[in-house]
Write a structure and sequence with these properties.
The complex is a heterodimer of chains A (283) and B (340).
Chain A (H helix, E strand, L loop, with lengths): L2 H4 L12 E10 L4 E7 L13 E6 L3 E6 L10 E6 L3 H6 L7 E8 L5 H4 L3 E7 L3 H13 L7 E7 L8 H9 L3 E7 L9 E2 L16 E6 L4 H11 L7 E4 L15 E2 L2 E2 H4 L2 E3 H4 L7
Parallel strand pairs in A: 7-8, 7-11, 8-9, 9-10, 11-12
Antiparallel strand pairs in A: 1-2, 1-6, 2-5, 3-4, 3-6, 12-15, 13-14
Chain B lengths: L3 E4 L3 H9 L3 E8 L3 E6 L18 H4 L3 E8 L4 E4 L7 E6 L1 H15 L5 H6 L4 E5 L24 E6 L2 E6 L2 H7 L25 H9 L6 H8 L5 H5 L6 E7 L5 E8 L20 H20 L9 H4 L7 H19 L1
Parallel strand pairs in B: 2-6, 6-7, 7-8
Antiparallel strand pairs in B: 1-9, 2-3, 4-5, 4-11, 8-9, 10-11
Helix pairs in contact in B: 6-9, 7-9
Classes of the chains: A alpha/beta (283), B alpha/beta (340).
């Protein structure tokens, strides 16, 4: 077919205009990470899926993608867990309740929760990868009877860098949650597991035919987690992975997040592992 | 198609005539050695016989710097940038550059249709001109010939002492109406021969490029490449961009702008914290070439390279995209031969 016949005819829209939203709460999680509660104007709901992201901007500073940390089951406001690593995030850390930020989104494909319904849900989160995974964890906890067991493996560099420690306590006490945490290097006070996240996987109690897994963490983590899950016998089709890239526009135009033929902001950030195998640059 | 004739000594009068109807952009001398597409003020400055402009017509629809919004820091308010249709005649455009716009139309319409680009695209009357392939053109290999009239309203084919004129659409008839273009019985001359060729059509290239992911050509090209991104910046189908904030000197407000970016630059895939997802020049060259000959053509059946030769002509390191693709083809064929 001729190329000009392939061009879809649809009404053009403004893709790059933010919705000015209000910071409702600012809560430090660690020395580096902060949890922001954000409200869209007029009590509008963000309407996201777990695993999706928004573009957050400050005028005169910049715009960047951040995953949504709250569950869509908790309406009215949404939460962003953000680490201070650059100019924009340094400036965000100075915000107070009442201040404004620009929001675009939600964007991308999040976790396909329908594929997890009725199944045991295994979450493997490394470091700041817990931020988007918390959205799914709370989604499962809020709709407890729609899912089987909830198994959480969380790894962090040190116990000082653990996120959501208060919620972690409630996961630990919840008989319906199988919660495991490890740190690469513990402080003298740390009494829990020490070692990389893959050390948690061999000991997990898994019903292989019933378990669906979602993995999110730093790039270096994925191959090792995949190997560990494979050696447990978890089939590839039961694995979803959330990938980090530079999603500058969020709407499949700017090119920064492209992995081979796939735009992470459109096809991801959450991918079904069998689909990732054709993307050589993914891991 | 009835052919009319525009004598060389009447080109200036023709340009003057259409300038009365609409703003005209056309190739004109820029410095000693270059020709650039610019707004026409002096009809005598228009150059219709040229090899290529450094920048294609892309710059009119996706400007190198494109304001997205204006913000006010005091009250955190903003106003969307005003975007207007180009509403002009683009005169003296080569067929490969018109074909590039079909590709950008696709990119900016599929998925989310973008107002900024699509608004600017409105109101354009396209007047094409044939070209004589030079040592860099290879558009014939991607199915775009020097005399192709596809997408044009009026087309001028170089002939003896002037141009054969085809008026192809209503917009073309409106533009030329009232200017005396006598009918001619001259036949359209044969288009010039290309000196550069890709040895296989795109239908086969999808498979060849798919099998060339680990070809040594990427590392070998990377040894020459300096990662300057010139190939991206001159490409008529590259459209990647970055977004920047520009605060005014009074620090009272400013603009959010998008600027052209290029996948050959190291920072292109860098995320906060310093991770770079295509850190090597070999990976970046592969991405650039695969985007032109595989990723988008798998989806649409059309290569995203239009064979203008710019990336090769302006490469600071003498890298040829035709050589890269032909190397992939010959290695693929060699491999197929040994496999039998």
């Amino acid at each position: 077919m001729k190329l000009n016949e392939l061009v879809p005819q649809q009404d053009p829209v403004d893709l790059y205009l933010p919705v000015m939203s209000e910071i409702r709460d600012v809560r430090p999680l660690t020395d580096l990470e902060t949890l922001y509660t954000v409200a869209l104007p007029d009590g509008r709901d963000l309407g996201h899926q777990p695993g999706q992201f928004v573009e957050v901007s400050l005028f005169g500073v910049g715009e960047a993608p951040f995953s949504i940390s709250s569950s869509p089951t908790r309406k009215g406001v949404f939460e962003l867990g953000i680490r201070k690593v650059g100019l924009l995030t340094e400036k965000l850390a100075e915000l107070k309740p009442g201040d404004k930020v620009g929001i675009r989104g939600p964007f991308g494909h999040g976790i396909p929760v329908e594929k997890f319904r009725g199944k045991d849900v295994l979450i493997v989160a490394g470091g700041i990868g817990l931020v988007p995974m918390r959205s799914m964890i709370n989604y499962v906890l809020d709709r407890r009877d729609e899912f089987g067991r909830l198994i959480i493996c969380y790894g962090s560099r040190s116990d000082k860098e653990l996120l959501f420690t208060d919620e972690m306590e409630s996961w630990r006490r919840d008989p319906g949650v199988d919660f495991h945490v490890t740190v690469d290097r513990g402080s003298p006070e740390w009494e829990g597991n020490t070692g990389v996240i893959t050390t948690l996987i061999p000991g997990l109690e898994l019903d292989l035919g019933k378990t669906v897994c979602c993995v999110c963490g730093p790039p270096v983590m994925y191959r090792f987690v995949l190997l560990a899950l494979k050696s447990r016998g978890l089939p590839d089709k039961s694995i979803y992975m959330s990938l980090e890239r530079r999603m500058k526009c969020g709407v499949g135009k700017c090119g920064h997040c492209q992995i081979n033929h796939s735009y992470v902001c459109q096809d991801g950030p959450v991918y079904h592992y069998p689909d990732l195998k054709s993307l050589e640059e993914a891991l | 198609m009835e052919l009319k004739f525009l004598a060389s000594d009447r080109v200036e009068a023709f340009v003057s005539y259409i300038m009365q109807k609409k703003t005209v952009y056309a190739p004109q001398r820029a410095g000693k050695h270059s020709v650039a597409l610019k707004k026409v003020a002096d009809p005598g400055a228009v150059v219709l016989d040229y090899a290529r402009t450094m920048q294609s017509v892309k710059k009119f629809f996706l400007p190198p710097r494109d304001e997205l919004l204006q913000f006010n820091l005091a009250d955190q308010s903003f106003a969307p940038a005003e975007v207007k249709p180009l509403d002009a005649v683009l005169l003296g455009i080569h067929s490969y550059d018109r074909a590039a716009i079909d590709r950008l139309d696709y990119n900016f319409s599929q998925g989310h249709a973008e107002r900024n680009y699509l608004t600017r695209r409105e109101g354009v009357v396209w007047v094409g001109v044939s070209f004589e392939p030079d040592e860099f053109h290879f558009s014939g290999s991607v199915g775009i010939r020097p005399h192709d009239t596809e997408g044009f309203d009026v087309f001028l084919t170089r002939a003896r002492d002037g141009y054969l004129v085809e008026v192809l659409t209503n917009a073309g008839r409106e533009l030329t109406a009232g200017f005396d273009l006598p009918a001619t019985d001259q036949a359209k001359p044969q288009p010039g021969h290309f000196h550069q060729h890709i040895f296989l059509p795109q239908a086969k290239l999808n498979e060849v490029m798919g099998a060339s992911y680990n070809n040594p050509v990427w590392e070998e090209t990377a040894e020459k490449c300096v990662g300057c991104g010139s190939c991206n910046i001159v490409c008529p189908t590259c459209y990647c961009f970055n977004v920047e904030e520009n605060v005014d000197i009074k620090v009272s407000g400013g603009t959010r702008e998008r600027i052209w970016d290029g996948c050959m630059l190291r920072e292109f895939t860098e995320v906060a914290g310093g991770e770079v997802f295509r850190g090597g020049l070999a990976e970046r060259q592969r991405h650039r070439v695969m985007r032109k000959f595989k990723y988008l053509s798998d989806k649409t059946g059309h290569p995203w390279c239009v064979g203008c030769g710019r990336c090769t002509a302006y490469c600071t390191a003498g890298i040829s995209i035709v050589s890269i693709v032909n190397r992939c083809i010959s290695d693929y064929e060699k491999h197929a031969a040994t496999a039998v």
